Amino acid sequence: MSTTTNSVPKHWGLPEEWELAALAAGRLAEYLPRLAYSSAGYEPDPKTEEPNPSYAPRVVAQDDATPGAQAASDAGAFVPALRQAALPYVGEYPLEKIRADFPILAEKIKDRQLVWLDNAATTQRPAQVIERIRHYYEHENSNVHRGAHTLAGRSTEAYEGARAKVATFIGAPAPENIVFVRGTTEALNLVANAYVRPLLRPGDEIIVTLLEHHSNIVPWQILAEETGALLRVATVDASGQILVSEYAKLFNRNTRFVSVTHVSNALGTVAPLEEMIGIAHAQGARICVDGAQSISHMPIDVSALDADFFAFSGHKLFGPTGIGVLYGKSDLLEAARPWQGGGNMISDVTFARTVYKKAPEKFEAGTGNIADAVGLGAAIDYVSAIGMDNVARYEQELLAYGISELGRIPGLRPVGSATRRAGVLSFVLDGHSPEEVGRYLNEAGIAVRAGHHCAQPILRHFGYEATVRPSIAFYNTPAEIEHLARTLLALTRLPYISSTY
Ligand SMILES: Cc1ncc(COP(=O)(O)O)c(C=O)c1O
To answer: Lower CB count within 10 Å: N or C terminus of the chain?
Structure first.
């Protein structure tokens, strides 16, 4: 399909072995000139390759690290700069150094270099996190809060230290505002059952949005079914952005609670959270934010946002699976009833009555996932050293580049084109099912999600049952985006290539 020398390739197609080797070895400088050629040499066929207007290339200003900030409209300013740099940097860190911290990024898939673009499903872990968990089991393992011995002291210190790191990372007033849970799903179920359920009477209303992941729909549906409450859904515009004026109209005297995603996992839309929280509070309603998809892409300050609850999963933040966080304002955690009963969450038990501890222990019945909480603390140390504002800035640039590159693919239709987006490039490709695209990309070593992304309502709103969803993290490179684009282009031309060979 392509030439075997390091010179100009004759065809677009899967990358040359030498390119993959350069990429694998982190020698992007070798790879990048080829990329510069491949885009420069690519002449779109105006008959078949109309650029998609909703995939207009955008770039974020260098000094604007605002989460999901509106990107400017000149990718040209960004792309050459990216390519001229021997290696891109994220803040002060060369990407090569960052990538070397993630052992799995060196993995081979079908003899090809792994390109991990399924970060919205889960992120990869740096060696620092893996090593921290190993250290915990080798030197600190014990149950927490329960013994006078040295290891109990070490494990408690490590576990509570991780809680304090989470609090600082998301701008919570104190570690006591941080409840460790299994993940976002469990956090949202906790809010629904421990805080909202006791408030509900038949006819009361809960507001969510069309953008929600099933984790922020189903718990509320179950609750509504069991209490006679009603679920109301804020809609989106054609780009996939929340229509704030319509959202505001959903509030009435029956509104009891609001739960909204910060970033859509299916479209990448960054919701206008400040406005939405302001409206909910002005209407006297408390609001929970599903931060599963924002936590790894932008700085989060729950206090500045004035969120009442905020939930996220460790595995979406380069930390372990099985650990997550629920942030809650102190008075709300105090008002919420216990959600599971057992050890660790009580201060006194008789058969007549139980006295519960205060938050966060009140919500942490039984032995928690101590080692993975400690691992999450290490992940937070890792991203904090790079700086979430630097991560946001770099990713906005990479996303703009991805939008521009995918815009070159004939028949590729983006799903979701909101001005404020983070992390995700969702699309369908004419003539190829999402599953087929996913399998084809896998042959080239590229991992993306193809399916409904546990967000069926928003996909169906746009008329799809499934999309292809590449999703980025700060360790992804422009070269990987280029590889994605060229592989997709090769797929669109497959029938032509096979008929002429
Ligand atoms: C927006 C959103 N909310 C909630 C979840 C659920 O997260 P978890 O499966 O880690 O509980 C996800 C996972 O993809 C998500 O993207």
So the answer is: C
C-alpha–C-alpha distance, residues 473 and 5, integer Å: 31
pLDDT tens for residues 26-83?
333 343 333 332 332 223 333 333 333 332 222 222 233 333 333 323 333 334 444 4
| Token output for 141 | 């393992």
| Local structure of 367: helix, strand or coil | coil
Nearest residue (by CA) to ligand 1, atom 7, is: 184
215 lines ligand 1 (CB under 6 A): yes
Ligand 1 and 49: CB distance under 6 A: no
pTM: 0.84
Cβ(186)–Cβ(219) under 8 Å?
no
184 in ligand 1 pocket by Cβ < 6 Å?
yes
* Torsion sign (Cα): 358, 364, 365, 370: negative
Ligand 1 atom at shortest distance from the alpha carbon of 212: 1
Q: Which two tokens stand for residue 71?
A: 């990107």
Please provide the size of the chain in residues: 501
Residues designated as active site: 454
Residue minimizing CA distance to atom 12 of ligand 1: 292
The token pair at 278 is 């302001």
Inter-axis angle of helices 75-84 and 28-40, to 10 degrees? 140
Cα dihedral sign for 276, 281, 285, 286? positive
Share of the chain above pLDDT 70, in %: 81
Question: Which of the listed residues 118, 119, 122, 184 should we mutate to test ligand 1's pocket, taking the one with most ligand atoms within 8 A of CB?
Answer: 184
**Number of other residues whose CB lies within 10 A of the CB of residue 341:** 12
- Is 426 touching ligand 1 by the criterion CB < 6 Å? no
